[in-house]
Specification:
Shape of chain B: globular
CATH superfamily of the largest domain in chain A: MetI-like
Distance between the termini of chain A: 11 Å
Number of helices of chain A: 15
Strand order of the largest sheet of chain B: 1-2
Helix content of chain A: over 70%
Strand content of chain B: under 5%
Distance between the termini of chain B: 17 Å
Largest interface: A-B, 64 and 56 residues
Number of helices of chain B: 12
Oligomer: heterodimer
Radius of gyration of chain A: 24 Å
CATH superfamily of one domain in chain B: MetI-like
Amino acid sequence: MLRFAVRRLINMAFVLAAISVVTFLIFYVFPGTNTDAQVERIAGRSSNEATRAQVKRDYGFDKPLSVQYSRLMEKFADGSLISYSNQTNVRDEIARGIPATASLVIGAAVIWTFFGVLFGVLSAVHAGGWPDRLLTALSMIGISLPVFWVGALLLYYLTDRIQLFPPGGYVKLTEDPWGWFTHLILPWFTLSILFIGFYSRLLRSNILDTIDEDYVRTARAKGLSERRVLVRHVLRNALIPIVTLFGLDFGAAIGGGAILTESIFNLQGVGQYAAQSVGSLDLPPVMGTTLYAAAFIVLLSALVDIVYAYLDPRIRLNA
Amino acid sequence: MAPEPSAEFAFEPSPAVPGVAGSEGRPIEAVGPWGAAWRRLRRNRIAMASLAVLVAIVACCLAAPLWADQVAHVGPDENNLTGKFERGGKQLYVVTPPPETKPVGPGWSGRYLLGADKNGRDEMVRLLYGGRNSLLVGFVSALITTVIAVILGLAGGYFRGPTDVVVRTTFDVIWSFPVLLLGIALGTALAVGGLHLGPIDIQAGSLWIPILVIGIIYIPYLGRPIRGQVLSLREKEFVEAAAAQGKGPLRIMFGELLPNLASTILVFGTLIVANNILTEAALSFLGAGVQLPTPSWGNMIGEGVNLLSTAPHLTIVPGLAITLTVLALNVFGDGLRDALDPRAKVRVR
């Protein structure tokens, strides 16, 4: 177990180093290494001479790439990365967005897991029948809808035209729990639609694969009720890939994957912070969000793997 | 898609299908795996209908210049803020003058069939040209994803050892970034200054930037399953036989292994096109994809959402176009999977 954990952590450190290099390449090297252009990218197009000179010195743009890389990593590590177009600290802004993003993603995760499992089971139990056809068609449409389009239409028609829900924005849970809840209902469902479609389709085919296994026949043969067979025997195994997928999706959504939903509903989360910076072509916030989010996902997936290996000996012995 | 309740194997031939082995009074016809798959696909009416929808959408978008020249008489980027046009015998403002400034909505007339946008541009013309760009980005980026993922997956799975470590790390690193955020990071960084890397020199605003960005971010999604399949295929006897005949690694990889991966590639490829069209829309909506004034379905929605109260058609129409295209691709991809791999077809009790 310890050996597995150590190996996984070494691998994690390696991937962390690689993502930092990739981030550096994306923002420093791919767009061209002309010094003036580099300075302009970080300082912003409308920056003045003084700012540019400062950026050039601070980021070491007149020095070789290796120095530029270490300067940038120092800035990430001590949180001194700032956006020059509005003089805000990137790490503070990201930290400010976390409660909204977490509220959105955790709530949506509950909804998409519940409906994903419910629809998947219903579909599989009635395989070939009309509930299956209906749910399959619905999940097919669900995974084909552009999230931001659905969000924009829901927001306009359900809050502007018939004032069913409060308009966009984020209300702090600690200040007004009911307001927090009502403001998040639409974003939760908007973010969930895609995942409900994916999870129900995946679960349906997993259940139908599991249902022919010998141990399921044994369970039936010993006289268990159909419901008990389904919940205790079939679902327990059919859910394993869903749990893995959930870990990935949840991490990605927290780390900025909810960017579209957040911007449409003006939730002021981490994703919207990145989206706004895209709009003004302000690179430091985009750079910060990207690297912090990727680092978060790498840490999270290492943690999940170690927990998995602890729970399931097969994983640590095979690896 | 809804599974057909009829048996897929020849034991109980469905009488409606000509040429199926054992059909009464007909000689048994030899059919290869691809022929059999095509026959199964042809019988799947929903998949064929979505293929027809796809072909129609592609044909319409390719005919964009025809519509622009012959029917609308206006290009995709021509503003018209003060003009009028005729619809149903009446002269209408393209954009009603201030203070209202409301673009005209859809109606029966060759010009402004789907109304105008805030600059008085013809929405139908922009929809067709935007569709061309969206489809182009979707298909070409999926092609890039597929080619790179197949090469990496084949190399990693076949050679194993250090090559595989490099391939796996590449996948892990790309996988670690939230996919949309990686797209945004690349899209924004390159939108500012273009891509200048050795011999590659792409100007900012070129369609190649979203194509490359989207093509790269989904590589692990196809590369991982391919690598896994290669790992198990390389242990099979036919690979050993090929090696014994003196075939080199390249010929084994592309001559022996690749044909066995074809159905996976085809199915995933279709789904990746669908996915990439959605990603293009999302990136362009956020301003990190296709750059204005070049139209795409995504940035058309991005322009439209601010005008939802006066001109909802600007948001609804391109959104419907995306949904319809992506839905057709997803349904067709599903049918393709059922046709190519009858074992994976979900059994009906």
